[in-house]
Amino acid sequence: MSWRGLFHNISLPRAFFLILGLYLAFEAVFASMGLLLVQTMLGVKDTAELQRLLFQPSNEELADPALRFAIQLVNILAAGGKLLAGVVFLVLVDGHPLSRPGTHKRPALMPLALAIAAVLLSGPAIDALHSANRDLLAGVSGGFIDQMRDWEVRAERLTAALVEPGDALPMATTFLMVALLAPAWEELIFRGIAQRLFEAWTRSGHLAVWISAALFAAVHMQFLSFLPRMGLALVLGYSYLYSRNLWVPIAAHTANNAAYLLYAWISGSTPEPADPQLLASMAAATGVILLIFGLYRFRDRTVAPPWEGLSPPANTPPESGRNQQPDQDA
Predict the structure, then answer these.
(1) Half-sphere exposure of 308 (CA within 13 A, CB side)
(2) Residue among 249, 247, 250 at smallest CA distance from 292
(3) Are 15 and 74 in the same domain?
(4) Distance between CA atoms of residues 280 and 282, nearest Å
(5) Which of 52, 78, 99 is the last residue of a domain?
(6) Of the candidates 162, 224, 204, which has an alpha carbon nearest to the alpha carbon of residue 328?
(7) 113 shares its domain with 258
(8) Helix 144-162 × helix 65-92 angle, to 10°
């Protein structure tokens, strides 16, 4: 029995639960494999102590290269599991409109260049979103908010330790984890699958971009950085909406993360959000909007939207679901 196309007639709600189930299952399995491996590597028999070392290490413990490599290994395996979950989903729904995220052909040079430029130019605008996010929660404390702040501090400390320049092997594994695997699985799951699913569901490209961007920011569970992550996801989402080629947001996301690593390695410290300058933020936002408009001008009109081939909703005349032109993304 072949698994390819097993769910080629799946409904959109069931497709959502299928990718959610695969995502959670593969992440759990591969992360568990990583925990077993590093437990042997570090010689730690107590599971609670192992989890503390991996997720709440002290500064002195983080200075140990073996522990840093163990943390990287767990993250690499978990990322590989999530990437595999997306691939398995595409195999299972082969023949369904959702199974065509646009990885079968090379991206055109102009959309690729515009998307990368938009992401790299967005820095000052992202800093402004960081500031706005911080100001929104400045006077809020207690309970979940304090827990979020604690998570943010832990995440920043772990990130700073993991991206420190050092020997070739640790830097190579960091680059694999941050600049290659993370963009690959995040773009496959959030743009190649979730955004297309929401677009097919709502029949609105813009709504799908915003929903998937909010989901992308929420999944990171770092809500003090929710707005800047959502801002980046919007740029990536529109680059995918207009290019209809998943390699475009993957390349732009890779460029963003690689630039972050290069800055950290050259300067010896992780980039910190700068105090937003109004003029610089407005200029950056304007530039990003113009670049996204350029993506729209060079949009791929040959690829059908993801609702093409689906049965129209019961309350919609049959022709309204079929006769929309591929380039009408909104």
Answers:
(1) 14
(2) 249
(3) yes
(4) 6
(5) 99
(6) 204
(7) yes
(8) 110
Report the predicted TM-score, pTM, of the whole model to 2 decimal places: 0.89
User: Would you say residue 248 has pLDDT above 50?
Assistant: yes
Place of tokens 């040079």: 109
Same domain, residue pair 31 and 130: no
Q: Are 197 and 12 in contact (CB under 8 A)?
A: yes
The burial of 12, by beta-carbon neighbours within 10 Å (0-12 exposed, 13-18 middle, 19 or more buried), is given as middle
User: Which residues, at least 6 apart from 150, have a Cβ–Cβ distance to it below 8 Å?
Assistant: none
Residue of 78 and 51 predicted with greater confidence = 78
**What is the spatial distance between Cα 236 and Cα 251, in angstroms, rounded to a whole number?**
10
* pLDDT tier for residue 75 given thresholds of 50, 70 and 90: very high
Write down the pLDDT at residue 311: 54
CB within 8 A of 2, min separation 6: which ones? none
Owning domain of residue 41: 1-99
What domain count does the chain have?
2
Q: pLDDT tens-digit profile of 199-213? A: 999 999 999 999 999
Cβ atoms of 189 and 84 closer than 8 Å: no
Question: Pick from 99, 129, 148: which residue ends a domain?
Answer: 99
- Mean per-residue pLDDT, 174-196: 96
